[in-house]
Structure formats: structure tokens, C-alpha cells
């Protein structure tokens, strides 16, 4: 099951857990109020999983690919890792399904504090358009993930600050309505 917590302020290795002491856990309900959707699926059978098929149909996830993030598998690995960890947002939802390995998605809460979401095999996450976030591998240095999109994929990341983007304004309106 997914685990999430508020991060400490340490600038040490980004792949470390960065838990506050004492740990400040974040519930799935707290993530949901930020627009983050979590699902648990059968990653061993992703090619034939009826649950994944139904999610793709219901959410109109018409495009998908699989990416492996490891120094021996990803071209320009060091550059990509730095890029993934820069705080940014997208104009569309970001959907990731972990097929193997593990890593962290970090998202900002309503008070602009970092929440770290530990992702491992079988975890699927949807980050809403306009949420500031970043990704890093954990200390295992390996993840294989499915990327899903509605329509054609758009890879553009807008580094912070991007508060004037329509997606950010819409996301802030969502947060205000949920308050």
C-alpha cells in the first residue's frame, strides 16, 4: 500500500526518504483533497489486467508507453534525473503506473509544503494538471513505469514559477473549492 509523509528540509541525497522526526504521515484522503488519485493494480499481469483496461476506458487513457529509469537503460540518464527532480507542473494530468522498482513523487500541499509519496510495483498515481511536483528514484535506483495520456502525449514541463498558467489557476480554484 502506498505511503506518504511530509518531508524534512534536508538537502542531502534526493533519493533518501526525507522523513520528518517524528514522522508526519499523510493519508490517502489528504492526497485526494489535493487532487491526487491513487490506485493499486496487479503489475504482474498489466498486459491483460481487466482493471487497468477499465481504468483506461473510463478515463480515456488512449496512449501509453513504458519507460525504464536506470543508468544502463535511459539515454542521458543523469540529465533526465535532474530534470525530473526540478519542481514543475503540466497542463495535463500526469499518470504513472509502477510495473517494477520504486521511486518517489513529491507534491506540494495547500501550504506549499512538500509531501513525499513512496511508489512501488503495482502503484498507479494520477497527479492533477497544475499541481507542483517532481519525481526521483529512491535508493534502489530503478523503476519501470507505464505512462498514460488522454490523446497524444505532451511532455512539456513548466518549471516553477508557472502560477499564471491556466492549468495552475484551475488547480488553485479546485483547492479553494475543496477548502
Amino- and carboxy-terminal Cα gap:
27 Å
Number of helices: 4
Low-confidence stretches: none
Order of helices and strands: EEHEHEHEEEEEEEH
Q: What gross morphology would you assign?
A: globular
Task: Work out the number of β strands.
Answer: 11
Please tell me the CATH architecture by its name. Answer: Sandwich
- Portion of residues in beta strands equals 35-45%
> Roughly what is the average pLDDT, rounded to an integer?
97
CATH C-level category: Mainly Beta
Number of domains: 1
Our Rg estimate from Cα atoms comes to 16 Å
- Major β-sheet annotation: 9 strands, antiparallel
Q: How helical, in percent, are the residues?
A: 10-25%
Full CATH superfamily name = Jelly Rolls
Q: The CATH topology, please?
A: Jelly Rolls
Instruction: Classify the secondary structure makeup into a structural class.
Output: alpha+beta
GO molecular function, one term: acireductone dioxygenase [iron(II)-requiring] activity
Catalytic activity: 1,2-dihydroxy-5-(methylsulfanyl)pent-1-en-3-one + O2 = 4-methylsulfanyl-2-oxobutanoate + formate + 2 H(+)
EC number: 1.13.11.54
Region (Disordered): 1-21
What does this molecule look like?
This protein is α+β, with helices and mostly antiparallel strands. It has a single domain (3-178), classed as Jelly Rolls. The protein contains 4 helices and 11 strands, in the order E-E-H-E-H-E-H-E-E-E-E-E-E-E-H. The protein has helices spanning 28-33, 50-59, 77-85, 166-178; strands at residues 3-6, 25-26, 37-40, 61-69, 88-89, 94-108, 114-120, 123-127, 133-137, 143-150, 158-159. The strands form 2 sheets. Strands 1, 2, 3, 4, 6, 7, 8, 9 and 10 form a 9-stranded antiparallel β-sheet that branches. A hairpin with a 5-residue loop joins strand 6 and strand 7 (114-120). The mean pLDDT is 97.
Amino acid at each position: 500500500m502506498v505511503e506518504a509523509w511530509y518531508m524534512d528540509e534536508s538537502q542531502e541525497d534526493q533519493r533518501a526518504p526525507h522523513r520528518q522526526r517524528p514522522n508526519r504521515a499523510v493519508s490517502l484522503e489528504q492526497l485526494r483533497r489535493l487532487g491526487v488519485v491513487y490506485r493499486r493494480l496487479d503489475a504482474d499481469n498489466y498486459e491483460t489486467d481487466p482493471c487497468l483496461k477499465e481504468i483506461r476506458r473510463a478515463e480515456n487513457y488512449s496512449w501509453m508507453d513504458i519507460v525504464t529509469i536506470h543508468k544502463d537503460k535511459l539515454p542521458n540518464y543523469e540529465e533526465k534525473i535532474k530534470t525530473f527532480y526540478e519542481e514543475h507542473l503540466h497542463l495535463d494530468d500526469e499518470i504513472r503506473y509502477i510495473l517494477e522498482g520504486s521511486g518517489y513523487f513529491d507534491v506540494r500541499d495547500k501550504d506549499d509544503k512538500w509531501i513525499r509519496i513512496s511508489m512501488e510495483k503495482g502503484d498507479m498515481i494520477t497527479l492533477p494538471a497544475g499541481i507542483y511536483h517532481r519525481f526521483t528514484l529512491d535508493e534502489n535506483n530503478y523503476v519501470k513505469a507505464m505512462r498514460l495520456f488522454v490523446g497524444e502525449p505532451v511532455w512539456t514541463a513548466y518549471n516553477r514559477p508557472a502560477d499564471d498558467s491556466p492549468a495552475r489557476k484551475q488547480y488553485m480554484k479546485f483547492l479553494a473549492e475543496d477548502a
